Amino acid sequence: MSCVLVAHGTRKPQGVELIGDLAARVSELVKNPVHVAFVDVIGPTPTEVLDAHAGEPAVLVPAFLARGYHVSTDIPAHVGASDHPAVTVTPALGPDPALVRVVVERLVESGWRTDDSVILAAAGTSDPAALRDLHTTAAWVSATIGTRVELAFAATGEPRVADAVTALRQPGRRVVVASYLLSEGLFQDRLRNSGADVVTEPLGRHPGISRLIAQRFLRARLPSLARQG
């Protein structure tokens, strides 16, 4: 069984390193090598990785926190362009209760207090399905911590994080930005420069992320193993 972790791609070394580290940790959990592919900026592409491992069934997990163009269009196009005969593509990582737990644990470790105003800060998207996913996640985080959580964006979409921080600013009340990003980089820098009192760390190095990815691989692998049996 070939396991392929597919990410967006970046020229930022810390982003590439994160995906490699995630693949290594997931490989230990699933007891199987995990290959890395990227849909943009750098390679190898999913098509290239699938063609290199066409001799066995493949499970491909998108390392994206919500649906969007890359998950709904780019990844299927790469699969279709490959010569691989048996590929299973799992859903994006979010929305998922496991992601909510990671966001909340990041809040707690940052020193979040129950009377803080909270913003869930995503990269942003113009894709309606992805927006629904992000609003769902914000609602689940809100229900978990017992206070309203606003959704804002570091890049595409409104409100921008800095504007949301300004709108929520009240005397004597802190504004906390909960990062809904996997990695350090430009977008995380924008969160830190938003004027918030507290900004949580990206999610990618939290153990819950590697466990979630491993679960995606293992659940997708079960039907294939049953067919082989």
Automatic annotation (TrEMBL):
Classification via InterPro entries: CbiX-like, Sirohydro_Cobaltochel/CbiX
Annotated protein name in UniProt: Cobalamin biosynthesis protein CbiX
Pfam (any one): CbiX
Keywords: Lyase, Metal-binding
PANTHER family referenced in this protein's UniProt entry, alphabetically: FERROCHELATASE CHE1, SIROHYDROCHLORIN FERROCHELATASE, CHLOROPLASTIC
Membrane-spanning parts: none
Organismal lineage: Bacteria, Bacillati, Actinomycetota, Actinomycetes, Mycobacteriales
Record's keyword annotation contains Metal-binding: yes
Highest taxon of source: Bacteria
GO molecular function, one term: lyase activity
